[in-house]
Amino acid sequence: MKLTFSHEDELFRQEIAQWLSDNLIGEYEQLKFRGGPGDEHMFPNERKRWEQHLAAAGWLCIGWPREFGGRGLTINQQVIFHEEYARAGGPGLVGHIGIGLLGPTLLQFGSKEQQQRFLPGILKGTEYWCQGYSEPGAGSDLANVATKARLDETDNCWHIQGQKVWTSLAHEADWCFVLARTEQGSTGHHSLSFLLVPLDQPGVDIRPITQLTGTSEFNEVFFDDAVTDAANIVGKPGEGWRIAMALLGHERGVSTLGQQMQFSNELNEIIRIAISNGAASDPHIRDRIARAWEGLVVMRHHALRMLSNPNQSQQPPEALVYKLHWSSWHAELGKLAMDVLGPEGLELNAAPYQLSRLQSLYLFSRADTIYGGSNEIQRNIIAERALGMPKEPRTKSA
Amino acid sequence: MEFAFTQEQRMIMDMAQDFLTEISPSDKIREAMATDRGYITELWQRVCEEMCWQAITIPEQYGGLGLGYVEQAIVMEQMGKQLFCSPFLATQALATNALLLCANEQQKQRWLTELAQGKITASLGWLSGSSLQNRHWGSQSVQASFTLCEGGAILNGEWQQVVDGHSCDLLIVAARSPANGHIKLFAVEPKACQIQRLPLPTLDQTRQLSRIIATQLFVPESGILGAQPDQRKELELILSLARIALAAEQTGGSASTLTSSVDYLKERVQFNRPLASFQALKHRAADMKLELESAISAVYYAACIADAWSQGAKSDSALHRAASMAKSVCSDTFTFCAQEALQLHGGVGFTWEYDVHLYLKRAQSSATLFGAANIHRARVADSLLGPIERQETSYETDLQP
Ligand SMILES: Cc1cc2nc3c(=O)[nH]c(=O)nc-3n(C[C@H](O)[C@H](O)[C@H](O)COP(=O)(O)OP(=O)(O)OC[C@H]3O[C@@H](n4cnc5c(N)ncnc54)[C@H](O)[C@@H]3O)c2cc1C
């Protein structure tokens, strides 16, 4: 067990730092430190161009294996990449759902044809994805999905009917992976399937939902006889639940290191403000800032433990507690930001509702404890899977 | 970088776990609590002979194992799990580091060799200030005095809360020169000199504390550790290393309180269901698990920093910050877990018979020992924000509403 990097790794650090300082300039200058949590609606097109620029140099899907067009970096090199990317102020990626979630899922479960069809678009930064899981009647109880899909032999297409909700970045995406029910009259997580659906078609209607920040990063997505080719199902019909869950497992992958570096930038900004506005002389604020720093170190080493775990098939406890840890930490950071700002935090930059970075951190971090499995659901998971406590008896549906 | 245990480290952990489960069951803990030393000598001898833990961080040239702080943390964590009563903390984490950092070659040859062989136990006393100073458990708490004299030094003062101070064979104490405020460390062999040692009845009976009193005590030159004129810096380093070891022990204690609580909840039936199936209780257990995993990440991070520091790859201030971080995180974790454990056990948790109270008391003593969480977070804050500017405020002392 050690934390120091090898000489080769340090050379790699110089290489990526140099590349970023040579490239994050000109038209990309304005993107520095943008597009992170709470700021995801900003500069979407400019960020996509930046992602294509990264892709051209092979810096987009750095952890994917080489034979699939990735860079095949070691975990250590990925850690370094994310550190340097955050240090340089590299913008948040519009393509993170494809890069971090769908891509790795296709590498694991996709057919050869699917890999050939879909991976290049993600690798090049030309095709963007969104996640169609939640529905009005299926939130925490995701297995209650009601969207239906039926395979029509005449046109050899899946026909989809139903509604998704809270679909992040659907308005920026070209494709959606949809969890749908493919057997009439089935219930629970049996008979769900994992479909890849193009969004640019008459059967799909995307309506933005305005969030408490006044902006909209998520949407309602209506499918009214939307179609996708019969081949666009990952795994077999009925295997959707297993694949959907495996995809969620990738949310705890290396991409979390990138997210942590964003967090680190946020904490640094809070520290800077606390020192300049005098909040740093309040012992209570000092204690909370110290806690925040400690929490960040803990989070980083949780992540490193889970990435260094040789047995990736079985989820170690640090993986099960990870979401609960970072979401609670980040929500508290948002509150800390406001308390450090003090009275200034009550004034907006401009009408109608232009939030500063820290104000939007405060508001947006309220979502972290809800999406991707709420804190309550995370606690159920920890209690049941890590501690072996029994499930709560489920009442029979009426 | 590799933030996972090596195969050898896993082996040390497994062996420690097996060995301690065997030698430190509840009745042995209670037997140890009732002894004058606070530990069972034969069991400590077995540790020294079969496990060699007393020699973990002692370099091979003195007959030690030459292992690092990660290995030390692994062993400490397992001892914490079993609430093992032993002189390890005082001997390995305090005194051994004091010798490693301060002693001259001759002194190392003599005492490190004896320590590595398990022939002697040792401890460190430094707390000798006002109660406000002592809260910091740092060099500012050193107020006992020394004056150099012909052939040695004269010590005067009273050291408080010395872990295993009344039973150790070698006692290292820190004292301050009234002339220039410098701090020096001295090694005395209590059995051979006029030093007074008073065992104290303790809240946590699994760890013994004592008061040490020196009045015009002469220490020969051979007992003045090393040649540095001021060892304040060394003392702070020793204490940071000891905090990491203690934090590792706290992690183990937290793990046990969680396991025993979950086991109890699975067994205990109320309302025709095992209590473990109630979500209100599952969520409390889940929070304990989160705290525990956080403590583990914090401790091994700090232990890795300590190893890197000992190889010259990390600065002193990085070590101090990591140690303060580990100590504050783990103090909060163990306190939280032990308190939750008592609540989750209901009435039986309040009995002398169940071990829950032993962990609760150990949690309280460990949280206080070497500096409480808030003290250490204040140090972390200083490192992030610069020292605090204190403003003079006038306040009302009249508390009448
Ligand atoms: C900003 C944001 C972005 C999102 N992006 C996406 C996306 O891209 N794609 C997508 O598919 N979904 C997305 N979601 C949806 C998200 O996954 C759901 O909101 C989440 O799963 C919770 O479901 P719900 O909103 O229906 O809340 P509900 O399930 O109705 O929960 C309400 C409250 O009850 C609690 N609760 C529910 N069940 C239990 C239980 N068994 N025990 C104890 N407490 C319980 C919850 O924790 C919560 O506090 C997003 C949500 C947000 C806020």
UniProtKB/TrEMBL annotation, chain A:
The keyword Lipoprotein does not apply. It comes from the Bacteria. Residues 7-125 form the Acyl-CoA dehydrogenase/oxidase N-terminal domain. Its cofactor is FAD. Residues 130-225 form the Acyl-CoA oxidase/dehydrogenase middle domain. Keywords: FAD, Flavoprotein, Oxidoreductase. It holds the Pfam family Acyl-CoA_dh_1. SUPFAM superfamilies: Acyl-CoA dehydrogenase C-terminal domain-like, Acyl-CoA dehydrogenase NM domain-like. Residues 238-386 form the Acyl-CoA dehydrogenase/oxidase C-terminal domain. PANTHER family: ACYL-COA DEHYDROGENASE (PTHR43292), ACYL-COA DEHYDROGENASE FADE29 (PTHR43292:SF3). Belongs to the acyl-CoA dehydrogenase family. This is Acyl-CoA dehydrogenase family protein. It comes from Shewanella corallii.
From TrEMBL, chain B:
The keyword Ion transport does not apply. Residues 6-119 form the Acyl-CoA dehydrogenase/oxidase N-terminal domain. It comes from Shewanella corallii. Gene3D superfamilies: Acyl-CoA dehydrogenase/oxidase, N-terminal domain, Butyryl-CoA Dehydrogenase, subunit A, domain 3. InterPro entries: AcylCo_DH-like_C, AcylCo_DH/oxidase_C, AcylCoA_DH/ox_N, AcylCoA_DH/ox_N_sf, AcylCoA_DH/oxidase_NM_dom_sf. Its cofactor is FAD. Belongs to the acyl-CoA dehydrogenase family. Pfam families: Acyl-CoA_dh_1, Acyl-CoA_dh_N. Coiled coil: none annotated. Residues 239-384 form the Acyl-CoA dehydrogenase/oxidase C-terminal domain. This is Acyl-CoA/acyl-ACP dehydrogenase. Keywords: FAD, Flavoprotein, Oxidoreductase.
